[in-house]
Design a protein that fits this description.
There is one protein chain. The longest helix has 29 residues. 51% of the residues lie in helices and 15% in strands. It is an alpha/beta fold. It contains 10 helices and 9 strands. Helix 4 links the parallel strand 6 and strand 7.
Length: 267
């Protein structure tokens, strides 16, 4: 396959780092964007916060100046905040939605003018199983991923005519640093009603994540999407049980699905 210029956000660890390493090993020119300074002999790291539109515009312009184009954008940057929806603070909501959803939007708006001018390009957005069903005590995380689902579907309809392909990946549970870096609501922890239930649910969530698939599994799927001319819009990457849950959701009533989620997460 011809060498491609690829931007990956959240490339310092987890899915982003694993994907960047595989793509770089295949001979692609890979720019890894992350909030902290990083150095690597193969991956061209750039310090960039996906919530900062000015910083993004500068970095993308520099990449285009160096390479003349951007062929692929992989929107991987993300984080999680656990807690009760009722007790979420403005700061927690802004951080969650600003990183996961608006970070994706900001990056897309920065690269699309270059892709549209070239009449070619590919955008791969990281959603989640949590973007297919609303997960209790991860409500704003789910909301951010639901938003990515709708955004990606609409974007694909708008830009396919310009030769730009758009798709998304919906991972299940993976054993990455995401679990350890999750921010949990102290107000929820301290609440006499929500606290005990949240702690019980969180233990289940963390057990599933820590016992999940390795990030290289998802990285290899993303690489296939990079190399595929016409990738499917939605791509679930999960164990059999979680994959089946996305299928079952299509046929169950809303109340039935909520009941299953409440039972599973002991909420």
């Amino acid at each position: 396959m011809e060498q491609q210029v690829i931007i990956i956000t959240g490339a310092s660890s987890g899915f982003g780092k694993a994907t960047a390493e595989i793509l770089s090993a295949k001979g692609h020119i890979v720019y890894g964007l992350c909030r902290r300074e990083m150095q690597d002999s193969d991956i061209r790291y750039r310090q960039c916060d996906v919530r900062n539109r000015e910083q993004i515009a500068t970095v993308v312009a520099e990449i285009v100046k160096e390479q003349g184009r951007v062929d692929v954008l992989i929107n991987n940057a993300g984080m999680g905040i656990g807690g009760a929806l009722e007790l979420a603070t403005d700061e927690e909501i802004d951080l969650q939605m600003g990183t996961n959803f608006m970070g994706c939007v900001n990056m897309c708006q920065a690269v699309l003018p270059y892709m549209r001018k070239a009449r070619r390009g590919k955008i791969i957005n990281l959603s989640s199983i949590g973007g297919v069903m609303g997960l209790p005590y991860q409500g704003f995380y789910s909301a951010s991923k639901f938003a990515i689902e709708g955004f990606t579907e609409a974007l694909a309809a708008e830009v396919t005519g310009f030769g730009i392909r758009v798709c998304m990946v919906e991972p299940g549970d993976f054993a990455t640093g995401f679990t350890g870096s999750r921010k949990n609501s102290q107000a929820t922890m301290d609440d006499p009603d929500y606290g005990p239930i949240f702690k019980r649910s969180l233990a289940i969530i963390e057990k599933e994540e820590n016992g999940g698939l390795q990030p290289e599994v998802l990285a290899r799927r993303i690489v296939k999407l990079v190399e595929k001319k016409k990738p499917p819009l939605r791509n679930v990457v999960a164990n059999l049980e979680q994959w089946l849950s996305t299928v079952i959701k299509r046929v169950l009533t809303g109340n039935q699905m909520v009941g299953i989620l409440r039972d599973y997460y002991k909420s």
